[in-house]
Amino acid sequence: MGCTMSKGTHEGGRLENHMHLSRGLGSHKRRTKKQRPVPEAPQDEEVLARSEGSVCSRSSSSSASASANSGNAGAANATTGKLGAAVSRLAKKRSSYEGKKDVRRKVLYTIKSEGLEDPAAFSLARGSSEAAADAAASLENEIVRFRGFRMSDLKEFWRTLVADEHVVLYEAKSDIAAAHVSMGQTLFRVKEMDSQDRVLCRAAFRRDEIEVPLDQLRKKEAEQWTVEDVCNFVVVPRTTKTDCFFEDTCSGDEAFGRPFEGAFVVHARQARMASLVQSLETHFCEHGEPLDKTYVWIDTFCANQALLSQDTPQTDHAQVTDFKKAARNERAGPHESDHASLLGLRRKLIRSTLHKAQRRFQETIVFIEDCQDPEPMRRAWCLWEMYGAAVGTRHPMNLVFGAGTDANVSAWLRDGRGGDELLRAIYEIDMRTMESRNDGDLSTIRKAILRLPGGLPEFKATVVWCLLRWFRERVEQAVIVAERDAAEPARDRSLAHLLVNAGGFMRKMNEFDVAFGYFDQAVRIFSRIDGSQSVNAGMAKHRAAVVRHAQERYDEAYSLFDEALFIKRAHYGNRHVIVADLLHNMAGSAAALQEYEEAAELYAEALSIKREKLGLEHASVANTLHDLAFVRRLQGQCDLSLALYGKALAIYKNALGPRDAAVAHTLNNMGAVKECQGHFDEAITLYREALSLLRETLGERHASVAEPPAQMAALMEAQGKHAEALDLLQESASIRRETLGSRHESVADALEGMAVIKDTLGERDQSLELFAEALIIRKESLSHPSRPPVGAVSFGDENTIISSEHDPSISSPTPARSSSVPSTVNNRRRSVADTLNNMAIVSGSQGKHDEAIDFYGQALDMCRDTDGERDMAVANMLAGMGSAKVAQNKFDEALQMYNQVLEIRRDKLGKSHLSVADTLQDIGAIKHAQGKFVEEISMYEEAMTICKVCLGERHRAVANVHNNLGGAYDAQGEYRKALEQYSEALDIYTETTEDKDADSAIASTLNNMGIVKKSLGEYSEALALYKRSLAIKRRIWDHEANLSIADTTGNIAAIKGVQGDLSGALADYEETLSIKRTILGASHLNVAEILVNMGVMEKNQGRFDDALEHFTQALEIQRAHSPRDARVAQTLNNMAVVKGGQGEYEGALLLCKEALDIKREALGPRHDSVADTLNNMALAKEASGNGDEAYALFEQALSIRKEALGERHLSVADILNNMAIVKEEQGRDEEAWTLYAEALSIRKSALHERHSLVADSLNNMGAVRRMQGKYDEALALNTEAMDIYRETLSEWHPSLARSMFNMALVHEGLGEFDQALEYAQKSEHIWRKTLGDNHRDTLSAESLVEDLRLAVVASAQG
Q1: Global pTM value
Q2: pLDDT tens sequence across 140-163
Q3: Which residue ranges have biased composition labelled Basic residues (predicted)?
């Protein structure tokens, strides 16, 4: 969300700078998840995706293995011919226990004996052998070695084992209590008893032999033996006596390879051994790898099973679903005292050794025997090994399926079915329910997972991503093979069907570009075979449209939906349900394009068809009603939206049951509409009903239960109930952490919601901390997505081969599903950018503009990387950075950025788009800050033209521009024109509102008109306007405690202060103070602002002690927030002015110096605010009689101001004016005259020749000539000034009175006492009416009148 400066209204005497914090509740705007998003073409939830690493192709175990181990591809390629063969033979013949010196000696001997003097090959052989030996020495220990078992030997081992008549296994048919044997348990036959009906057996992990009746056993054929059976009844007995490795029992030195040679095999212990051996053999043969040169690391043969079995529990398939239970088992396990060292080795293997070793193997193979029940996806060890392969290896992870199963991606794509259960198992990997036969291992793995940077979500996302990468590669390979094998690919129908199914796979994995390519290719093939208007072509276009919608390319999606709709209408007719579904999906794209009326029409047509074909009470009818209700709400038709939601709700209750989740979601969305209508109590009731229903149907701690509290929090925040909002968000965050993990993106959403509230409360440091935590989570999600698409993997009809008789529709979205925007990679990057944007806004509100610009810069880079240089998101971030530059008074830089924004928006949206009008108004605001009011007005007028073209002349957005024009004319001193603009805005607001007595825009405009009336000196009329504004605001919010009400009461207090009604002013300020303390707390910075305003009023009235008291209270609050903040400096500045007014110039200077130090530190030494303080220090020096020092300080201030604002800025004229006063008091009238003249020139060029500030300069110049005795010139100058005042100000304005007072002094100097008395009396009358009887100006005029009366009498007598 870009930080904008668009100004709809202005209150409190200044134009508002709207910098909206975007909330993180699901999408990137405030409170968007409480309603469904723009209905979209249905799509499954996305598969976790991440940037891909390189995928290495399989290499053989000779020179390519050496290459993999050495990391020196160049050397590997150089090893060719006899030299390569020699090095390979040497490595193969090496004994497992050879030392490094022996290896080097044998390599050298072989090279020299065969005359192979290639240094590169020698280096390679030496390096790879040494590296492997070093790694093996550091990673291997008593329980594990990392030498793989040769496939040919594994195959021979299995053949021999199966043929061994002494190895017989049985399986218990039922529980055998006497023998302590459970049903299904495997037993090893020790020997047959003399009686034919009994057998002597041994169970795993038991030393005693048991006699079991044969009729209670069934023989377990070799084909059914599991890997665990082989381990328990073959490997363990074979190695137990010496606690050795299986490798040590094998004859020959080549059955096991070099360290890390070959493939690391991940498998479940319950997999059938025959299937594992056969599948591995098939896998390697298909890839052309000879079995006698291929090695596999399988823990049964490569770990010390004799030692490990000593720590194996008696129970099988131990499952621990509770972290605390697992940890307890680990700490106090039954073997801890006897096997402490063994446990330590196991833990070390899990925590570090295993993954370090894995990354050195050439390949990781995940063996899945049964795709319908993929056990490795539930086993803790398997999942931990898969994670190691995903993060630690440079080589591929491959899936190998059980022998005899039809588990082949090509077959799935060809037949249009298969793979569903496997994908579902991948998506539903759940660390909380994973299993292990050893409780201690399970606990250790869980703890290791929790120590990962992203915890459980990080672990799951990484494993899922790696598995899906394999799927993606196989789909791509299958398509390539199908294209190669097709006789005529451009006209092959089976290829087209395969492409459609491949596209479905890719779409589910968020590979949208690839998916679209497949669908598009299928469209072309179907078009060539059956024609472009064939039903199959239409089906493929429909799916291509779904992909484009998911990519947020709504224009293309809409066009494709339209083409598909035309085809389906022609084939099925206009009233078919398939047509209705497509209309529904097309409406989603139209709504995303903000074509709301067209979307409503499409939904209405879909609704009509569904009602006709499915009946009035079908759930699909409710889906369309639901989405139509959302569109009507976006159009502002809240009553109609509620009626539609009500109808959908009734159908859901009837069709799905009153307790279905769809009912809860609909209630939640109805609450959102009620909130928009301002019916907060009704909204809260609906939210609570939805929450209660979700808790009942899903449980108290389900992830979906976290949503309604977040929505209620947003509502509470809007009502100013910040504490309640925080409690609700904390509850929501707690549930999300528990169910999704502490690093889940939705936790970041809740954190950002809390951060926004903290910022509102003025607790900006805490706000930034929360944003920073959210940012970390969002950045992690870029590479490790935290939202696995659980439950969204069923292919359904979409991946079924489509024939001319069958065209299944894509079902419409239902509100029972998550209402969040799909978390694509680009969306996650945008979320990061939005968080950075929010952090920039908070930093800016703290006055840390450099920090804010840094955040904006990071967000800008993210947007550019995601969407390109010319994207709208880039424009938004540039606008935010521009606003920060404005806050630094770097207007030229800001203007450059906003010009880029304007260029992008014109390019993307057209010159007459409303966003262009917004940008023009932003540029106008910068022109205002630069004092270039003519250019500002030009910007607003262009924006006005666009708004009128787009919206009509009487739209409220047009009224907003009138408001901004009013502000521009107000700043120019064109008060009458300002009032005309405000009046026009007021008329439009009044015409377009439903209740003119409860319209906040009307209240704001009345407030702005009051500001102008105050500038005109028409204080009574200003007060009346403020009171009208206040009355509306009180009616809108129905209670006193509202910040907008406080703003207006503050304005009323300021008017009363000017009028001299100090008691009334203080009463209004106290009310303002009370409201802000109630809502924001007594220590909020906004409370400090009111205290400052009270102090300023009292200072102007000469009540210096009271002013100091309020300034001191404000200072305490400001320093508590940030002792070196610029606001602290400003308050010190105000206190210095008071001290100066009391004649305590030294005290004033000390305060100014402290303020100066803070400003230079906080804002930089050349900031315009530094010039303000230097100016005040100069005034104090001047008042204490140090004119030269004062002038020097004025010169410093002038230099900074010219640099910061430009040579011809109005503020430059102000300092020139002060410098002239110093010269004038020093009696250097001509120098003073020159400075006054320069100030006059600037004011005329920046404003216009008849502006009241021009009259001020003329007045000052007249005073110089009067003091020089040049009364005629003085009279001319003062007369011109008085004429300007009369033109631009009201007849009761204090400035007009000042001009008349000066005229009286000139006429006095000319001896024209009658005329002098007349002017003096007029000035006294105006000041007495506007400022009160006791104001110092009134008293000065009264004294002059008395003197002139005496002079008139004396003149008459003389």
Answers
A1: 0.55
A2: 778 889 999 999 999 999 999 999
A3: 26-36
